[in-house]
């Protein structure tokens, strides 16, 4: 499932390539035909991510709410702009060669830079990938497209979301009110206090609380494991038993890692790497994380084998010594 950084990056694509444009909205699959008709022909005025959910506003006052869930993905195509981490990696996010990156006038790496075709397809879900260039615009929908958003230069196709619905402003406010703080949107002391207070009052294991989107927005399985290891915190510790200073450190570390993810397109959770190690980490998940997907391998700090167990119906990776 896409974690918070991915959804923020998708919202940024909409902000760059759709906001301010009149959008033709359709449902090639047919399952969203009624909702599409409410938005069709209106101008997109805002694109906003909150944790794992995204909200697109239109000039008739309605919003499109999307939750990708496990299977959802957006395909962008046309004269679109992507981050340097996409272009210079030939589509594999994070494999960058900054020296060879050509930036456009806005400081972003255009897909039309470096001799690349003007019109290209970009897939964005848990991973980001440049696919084959397109020869006509708009391209035909591929697969079961729930909703298609089309301007005169870009198209976005949504497939397999958990949620796709049209909401009024008060309904959007109600959805967001149920979500925990997102440090990409609010890194204030008040947001930190809200997180610390939510953790302190619950007997639930901290390994479950970090995945509870009403406690904090955007954390998924990868970030959960890595945040807990970086804090040297046992995943089974009840929230109310987590020291206040540790809870504050968790929030600040989440803000840091989320920012790295939004900037690089990767869940890079190892700090203070030299240039060679940083390049390896961006290129290969095996060099990117402390504990995630490393079950049975020695801990990078103490050498104890990393443990894999199930918590909250999700796989949990942790070090039984450093996080004892």
TrEMBL record:
Keywords: DNA damage, DNA repair, DNA-binding, Endonuclease, Glycosidase, Hydrolase, Lyase, Metal-binding, Multifunctional enzyme, Nuclease, Zinc, Zinc-finger. Pfam families: Fapy_DNA_glyco (PF01149), H2TH (PF06831), zf-FPG_IleRS (PF06827). Its EC number is 4.2.99.18. One of its GO terms (molecular function) is zinc ion binding. Its cofactor is Zn(2+). Residues 290-324 form the FPG-type domain. It is an enzyme of class 4 (lyase). InterPro entries: FPG_cat, FPG_N, H2TH_FPG, Ribosomal_uS13-like_H2TH, Znf_DNA_glyclase/AP_lyase, Znf_FPG/IleRS. GO terms for biological process: base-excision repair. The keyword Zinc-finger applies. Residues 2-90 form the Formamidopyrimidine-DNA glycosylase catalytic domain. Belongs to the FPG family. This is DNA-(apurinic or apyrimidinic site) lyase. It comes from Compostimonas suwonensis.
